[in-house]
């Protein structure tokens, strides 16, 4: 049996010397050291040996196993080292190469205009208020002097979820919620930016979802002249100090009197061009004195308090400010368009 062990050792070492891959090495380990290998079979036959032979054969068997395992482990280390070196060579980085530029995002033009408008009004002492986009009919219409079946509701074709819940068509509900929260205290001086939703067909100037910013001021002795002065200061900060405004009579259910506000065309400075259709003026927002019914529903005595409100579409302002002809550019995620505003 000792001779068989020595012959097995010689055979194993000879075959291991010819191994050229980790796969072959694993096969050799199973062949000679596995449960069905020749070494295991020899050890199972030790039961037929005498008591004197068993320790001798056992020691030889352990030496053979140790010799085979040593060669296998040595080759395993060699293969692992070679594999690591090959991977390092493949992953070598040339630190002298210039870095690949990573594209950096920029503020979306709509958000940029919102931030500019917020900064202007915060500088005039306003605070920013927010409210839910999924709104109750009461806040979106009734509290704003548009009761059920009011014909002016047809001006805003709405996305209703239930009979009393809808996607808000304007940010004016935030004004009502703010008045309720203030519980009759003054002054109220807020702007309300946010998304609004109407069932419009999307085209160059309309979108079913767009952004509005509305403003509300309530206090004692608020007059139309305060509204005009506020809006004049705002448009001059936004479009330049040469800008003038023009107020035209209009109708909104929640303000009385109501006006449409035009600004001198930013392209031609009022001389007339294709953008303003040769008029020298561009419509920018609607405004007016808060209707007494709205004040009353908000918890304010219209005999003691007055206020003004205004609202503008941010996309409209951005289109005028940056001379953009199609509102859909804001929502198509065209990087060629968006990159133009990265450094403005």
UniProtKB/TrEMBL annotation:
Cofactor binding annotation: Binds 2 magnesium ions per tetramer.
Primary enzyme class: ligase
Annotated positions binding Mg(2+): 256
Cofactor: Mg(2+)
Keyword terms, alphabetized: Aminoacyl-tRNA synthetase, ATP-binding, Cytoplasm, Ligase, Magnesium, Metal-binding, Nucleotide-binding, Protein biosynthesis
Pfam families for the chain: Phe_tRNA-synt_N, tRNA-synt_2d
CDD domains, per the entry: PheRS_alpha_core (cd00496)
Subunit-structure text: Tetramer of two alpha and two beta subunits.
Entry similarity comment: Belongs to the class-II aminoacyl-tRNA synthetase family. Phe-tRNA synthetase alpha subunit type 1 subfamily.
Protein name: Phenylalanine--tRNA ligase alpha subunit
Gene of this entry: pheS
